[in-house]
Design brief:
By secondary structure, the protein is an alpha/beta fold. Helices cover 35% and strands 32% of the residues. Strands 10, 11, 12, 13, 14, 15, 16 and 17 form an eight-stranded mixed beta sheet that branches. It has a six-stranded mixed beta sheet with strand order 5-6-7-3-8-9, with helices on both faces. Helix 3 crosses helix 4, helix 3 packs across helix 5 and helix 4 packs across helix 5. The longest helix has 85 residues. It is rod-shaped, with a radius of gyration of 60 Å. The termini are far apart.
Length: 466
């Protein structure tokens, strides 16, 4: 080691295990084995530098670059994975102020405890006690429990104890923001006095003004390596330029990310608007379809109402007794004015015996001469079609009619079996167009005088047995 140097650092490397989710209890480590996964992260990648005796050096760099790790390696709190650290003389550190303070003890009692931790004997503490109290400016509170101190008072007492230790090398880590402005200036002045006394000082700080005031050199550590070593003004200037460049680069990235987010947000809003428009379009289409369907339904209802009304008026236009469920259609160029049923005795009757004569007489009025087809239909009351007759189809003859008249359908021997039946009477022209059709106009009953026959009609059946 060079006799002019107080500190020599050669190729210093340090790595840490960074756990993703470390279990703290044995049970957690056994049950949740995956929590113990970690990665090895190199904080220092081989830094080297020399610090001469009586020199004040500031370590600067962004968070996580390895400044505090370097200071702890110099103080031998931790040890390197590779490389060497050589320090000549007694080392004192101001890394964690107030370590070892007991809150229930007074400030005076804590001075003895903390100073003894720094390696001072009771005699040395007694000699320096008044200076420590006077420097801390806590004379009125020195015999009060430390728990009653404010955070500023607590730090002032701890700093006063720390700097009272005579050492060849003083290591300081981010502890200069102590107390109010006046006390901070007092601390700076004390550090200058310590420096003038020949003590080597190594300071880690983010306050570049402090580095410029106290230090002779500045070492810029970046990503675990020494990026620049020189005068504080030059190094801090370059460091600030780099930080500003990083800030602007980060700002550009943030701006680009924000622009991309805005673009994505715009796309999302447009997509939502499109989806909303499509939903509204579908809703309108459904409403229009429903409206059309409702309109169609309403039209159908109206049409049915009109048809029912027309049928009602048609029924009401019938001026002779008829069945209540009669349905009337036709253009009324010929109008049926009366329908009656007669039995074999020529009397009007709606109860006819099977195998007896039945006659249906129909009266009409015709507006002009017309060739017509007279039609008759018989249905059982369960809507079974029993019989149908067309004069044009059966006789091959269309009848010419005009004015008022009458026609009849005669059944010399009614072969229908017992039951209730409905009668349809209709008049069509020779082209098949309906002139006046009355469906279910008359209801009549067939009384079966025979026994042992079933069905619709009576057939002339004979049985022979040999």
């Amino acid at each position: 080691m060079n006799s002019e140097n107080a500190i020599e650092v050669r190729n210093l490397k340090k790595k840490f295990k960074v756990y993703f989710d470390k279990g703290h209890m044995l049970k957690e480590r056994l049950i949740f084995a995956d929590r113990n996964k970690f990665e090895e992260r190199w904080v220092l990648n081989g830094i080297s530098f020399d610090i001469k005796k009586g020199e004040a050096v500031g370590l600067i760099g962004k968070n996580g670059c390895g400044k505090s790790t370097t200071l702890k390696l110099l103080n031998r709190i931790i040890y390197p994975n590779e490389g060497t650290v050589a320090i000549k003389g007694k080392v004192s550190s101001l890394i964690e102020l107030g370590a070892g303070f007991h809150e229930d003890m007074t400030g005076r009692e804590n001075i003895y405890i903390n100073a003894s931790i720094f390696g001072l004997s009771k005699k040395e503490i007694d000699e320096r006690l008044d200076d420590i109290i006077r420097f801390s400016e806590l004379e009125e509170y020195i015999d009060n429990p430390v728990r009653t101190y404010s955070s500023g008072m607590y730090m002032r007492l701890a700093f006063s104890v720390a700097i009272s230790v005579s050492a060849d090398v003083l290591l300081i880590d981010e502890i200069l923001a102590v107390g109010d402005v006046n006390f901070q200036e007092k601390c700076f002045q004390k550090l200058r006095d310590i420096k003038r006394s020949g003590t080597t000082i190594v300071i880690v700080s983010h306050s570049l003004g402090q580095i410029d005031k106290i230090c002779d050199r500045a070492i810029w550590i970046d990503n675990g390596l020494v990026k620049e070593d020189g005068s504080p003004r030059d190094v801090t200037g370059h460091y600030l330029e780099s930080m500003e460049f990083s800030r602007l680069e980060r700002a550009e990235q943030e701006y680009a990310i924000q622009q991309e987010k805005s673009k994505q947000e715009k796309i999302r809003i447009q997509e939502e608007e499109k989806q909303r428009w499509e939903q509204e379009s579908r809703k309108r289409a459904e409403e229009e379809k429903k409206g059309i369907e409702n309109e169609q339904i309403q039209k159908e209802l109206d049409s049915k109402k009109k048809e029912e009304e027309r049928k009602r008026k048609k029924r009401e236009s019938i001026k002779f007794p008829c069945n209540s469920g009669v349905i009337r259609t036709g253009n009324e160029e010929v109008i049926i004015t009366d329908i009656r049923l007669y039995n074999r005795d020529g009397n009007e009757s709606y109860i006819i015996n099977s195998d007896e004569q039945m006659t249906v007489r129909v009266k009409y009025e015709c507006m002009k001469k017309t060739l017509v087809d007279f039609r008759l239909g018989i249905f059982r009351d369960d809507n079974v079609h029993v019989y149908g007759f067309s004069s044009l189809a059966c006789d091959g003859k269309a009848y010419e009619i005009s004015g008022s008249g009458e026609f009849s359908f005669g059944f010399p021997c009614l072969t229908l079996l017992k039951g209730k039946y409905l009668l349809d009477i209709g008049i069509r022209d020779s082209e098949g167009n309906a002139l006046d059709i009355m469906s279910g106009v008359k209801e009549f009953i067939v009384s079966d005088s025979t026994k042992g026959t079933y069905g619709l009609v009576q057939l002339n059946c004979k049985i022979e047995c040999e």
